[in-house]
Amino acid sequence: MQYVGLHTQQARNNFRSVLLLCLFPCLVILLTFLFCVLFVFFTNEEGDMSLVWEQSLQMALYLIPYVLIAVVLWFVIAYFANTAIINSATGAQPLARKENKRIYNLVENLCMTKGMPMPKVNIIEDGALNAYASGINNRTYTVTLTRGIIDKLDEEELEGVIAHELSHIRNRDVRLLIVSIVFVGIFAMLTQFTFRILLSSSGRSKGGKDGKGAGVALLIALAVAVIGYFFASLMRFAISRKREYLADAGAVEMTRRPRALAGALRKISQNPNVEAIKRSDIAQLFIEHPLKKEGGGFFAGLSGLFATHPPIKKRIALLEQF
């Protein structure tokens, strides 16, 4: 695959970030209005649709400002705390420079060839072979490697993996992914929170109009949260899987060794599963999905439609054609 120019790719990812920032509030407003319509419809006993629409609109106009304020606050906190959240989820720790000069020399040499600021370097103490880039600016950009990938790849293969992650930083893929992770996480948390409240309240539900109204509100909130999670996830999947192909091509442009990266990916494919990773949103940051399960047939093909990574065999085949 031909490498897309740096400024073009940066412009595309900046546009996609802005688009996500605009689409997400629209989705929140639409779902809030849907909740109001459904709530009024199921609790209104008169059956007058014109009255349902009028009351729904009044309710939505009252709720939407509070919902947007809460979402903005949540987004700002999660956006700027993303480094701590990701490190906590992956168990990543700073890689000591004194004992790992080989790694720092590779990163520094690659950065110097492209005039890039030196990112931080972290390690996950896991025998699996994987890596990811994270951060939102020069102060927080980080390349994280597993112990397995450091120990089991040769010099040229490891250089290719590091170049791949540096390409994500150069292309500003990482910032775009952080935006999508935060958005999906909001709906995921809302879905879990509503579901738990619904479960806890079902055992001690009270009769009467108030109890019925609360139950209906919770059921509708859960349904709306699930819908929101689904569409927010689609937005995440809409961030094209080409970002991995482009980062592969960017790594080749840096190192001029396509077969070294192909060899690294082949080794990674044999053991990418990082034990500490439990969250699918964090998993999409890695060079190869660390939560991948074995499967085949129709369902494997269907899951590919919602994959965050392209098939690693196709990536290897493309690299071997360079």
Largest sheet features = 4 strands, mixed
Number of helices: 13
Would you identify the regions where 5 or more consecutive residues have pLDDT less than 50? 294-303
How many discrete structural domains? Answer: 1
Q: How do the helices and strands follow one another from N- to C-terminus?
A: HHHEHEEEHHHHHHHHH
Report the radius of gyration as a whole number of Å.
23 Å
Structural class: mainly alpha
Overall geometry comes to elongated
Number of strands: 4
Overall pLDDT: 82
Distance between the termini: 8 Å
Strand portion, in percent? Answer: under 5%
Secondary structure: helix percent:
55-70%
The largest sheet has its strands arranged as 1-2-4-3
Summarize the structure.
Helix content is 70%, strand content 5%.
Q: Main traits of this protein?
A:
70% helix; 13 helices; mainly alpha; four-stranded mixed beta sheet; 322 residues; elongated
Structure report:
The chain has 322 residues and is mainly alpha-helical. The protein has one domain. The chain has 13 helices and four strands. The protein has helices at residues 6-43, 49-80, 82-90, 101-114, 147-152, 155-171, 173-202, 208-238, 242-255, 258-270, 280-283, 297-304, 312-320, and strands at 93-94, 120-124, 131-134, 142-146. The protein has a four-stranded mixed sheet, with helices on both faces. The longest helix has 38 residues, at 6-43. The model is unreliable at 294-303 (pLDDT under 50).
